[in-house]
Amino acid sequence: MTDARASLLSRVRRRLTGGAGPWLPKLPDGRAVARWVVPVDELARVDAMPLRDLGHGYDAYGMSRGGLAFGLALSHVLYHHWFRVSSHGIGHLPTTGPVVVVANHSGTLPLDGLMICADILRRSPVPRVPRAVVDYFVGRMPVVNTVFTRAGAIGGSRANFHDLLDHGEVIVVFPEGTAGIGKGWDKRYELQRWTHGHAELALRHGATIVPLAVIGAEEQLPQLGRLAWLHAFGAPFLPIPASPLPLPVHLHLWYGPPIRVAERWSPDDAHDPEVVAQVAAQSRAAVHQLIHQGLRARTGVFA
């Protein structure tokens, strides 16, 4: 390496590490932004939430308290004023230990996942961080990937599941995946293919499964069709919504009684496909029942 090149690399390195001052102003802490819109009691919950800080303000997955606060700020208008989220039975969420929240998925855009996380952040019996599992292509989306990661979202790898459940965290999963969020209007509130991965991991770690039904998301952004040949950022398709913006539906979240896996099965049962299928079927049936309970209880889509 020539002296000139070494000198240039040294100057660049100093710039990147702040030795000669940053090229761009430092972004404000998420909590500083959140103070403008987020109630004081909600911000206090962020400070009370456990964070496996590696010594620089972030956990191993990139989550930070500032990111959680920023997530509350971003979701504030949607949660409180646009969708006017009503939370039913969140007391079923355990206060300690590993938890897998399983929910139906719908709405063309994953706003249901955002509202679930916003609800748990704001209303869980004790402050707990919901770690939403996102599809692999979300990590390829500029800016969005950073915001989601800072707010606690994770990729759906088995290693991530094992680590988080080992440390007693709360994971939010959608067993239907993109099949749920991309289904047509004629299939609204019909559960699609229900994968078994959450059941196997809950068995292996003795995690409690909490079923959850989202009511209202099916009507928030009806889908006219899809461009199956367009795979932006690796997504399986590009949806064509009927409205340029989500409709202001009244969103209801119904939490059901927990399925206490560890009280009935042992970790060794995770190796038995029949037991895994049985646990998955139980979680699916619980969500199905909550969907019908929620549909019967609501007085209107926008009411």
Written overview of the protein:
The longest helix is centred in the C-terminal third of the chain and has 25 residues, at 273-297. The radius of gyration is 21 Å and the shape is globular. It contains twelve helices and ten strands. It has a single domain, classed as Glycerol-3-phosphate (1)-acyltransferase (3-Layer(aba) Sandwich), CATH 3.40.1130. With 303 residues, the protein is an alpha/beta fold. Helix 3 runs antiparallel to helix 4, helix 4 (65-82) packs across helix 5 and helix 9 crosses helix 12. The chain is 40% helix and 14% strand. Strands 1, 2, 3, 4, 5, 6, 9 and 10 form an eight-stranded mixed beta sheet that branches. It has a two-stranded antiparallel sheet with strand order 7-8. Helix 6 links the parallel strand 3 (130-134) and strand 4 (154-155). It has helices spanning 3-17, 30-34, 40-48, 65-82, 111-123, 144-150, 158-166, 178-181, 197-205, 217-220, 261-264, 273-297, and strands spanning 86-88, 99-103, 130-134, 154-155, 170-173, 208-215, 223-227, 238-241, 252-255, 259-260. The model is unreliable at 16-27 (pLDDT under 50).
